[in-house]
Amino acid sequence: MIELEKEGGLWTVTLNRPDKANSLTVAMLERLVEIAETAGEARALILTGRGKVFSAGADLEAARAGLATSDLWERLSGAIAALPCLTVAALNGTLAGGANGMALACDLRIAVPEAKVFYPVMKLGFLPQPSDPARMAALIGPARTRLILMAGQKISAQEAYDFGLIDRIVPAEQLMETARALVADSLAADPAVAAGISRLCS
């Protein structure tokens, strides 16, 4: 349910459980962590999903069994954030719950016009993963972060773009083409130079 395609230095990771809104089971999350923690050799990484939803976050049954508070989420976002290559979340649809962490950890986020962003952890009685509010606040400020995490607002793709939460809105048929275009220069560059620029931007 997690697909990994390697094409030269480009790693494309696809969430493939569209019948369940790409909600993540323990096995799926463990596989994502494994990929992220071994992606140091990648020269660019694109994270996307199948179907109309990027990810609904944790699978409900798995969440009730403890996945909602697992350290796997933090391991995943931390591993993505630590990668020296350019990382792009290509959001094929709505981004919800704990899945926000992996997208926030990417360098760039692009989304289809129909996408929405929400993170209803407070309503469900959980805290967000520790790094997620800080990463979100760094992008959109503390007030808008509270709008999502505490006021429970679903943010449209246009609002997310206006806030600075996503970097580009792209028609669905152009999503992956755009993602690949964004990483093209990094793929062509000296990896040490690309990694050096990434460090300078942090």
UniProtKB/TrEMBL annotation:
<dbReference type="InterPro" id="IPR018376">
    <property type="entry name" value="Enoyl-CoA_hyd/isom_CS"/>
</dbReference>
<dbReference type="InterPro" id="IPR029045">
    <property type="entry name" value="ClpP/crotonase-like_dom_sf"/>
</dbReference>
<dbReference type="InterPro" id="IPR001753">
    <property type="entry name" value="Enoyl-CoA_hydra/iso"/>
</dbReference>
<dbReference type="Pfam" id="PF00378">
    <property type="entry name" value="ECH_1"/>
</dbReference>
<protein>
    <submittedName>
        <fullName>Enoyl-CoA hydratase/isomerase family protein</fullName>
    </submittedName>
</protein>
<comment type="similarity">
    <text>Belongs to the enoyl-CoA hydratase/isomerase family.</text>
</comment>
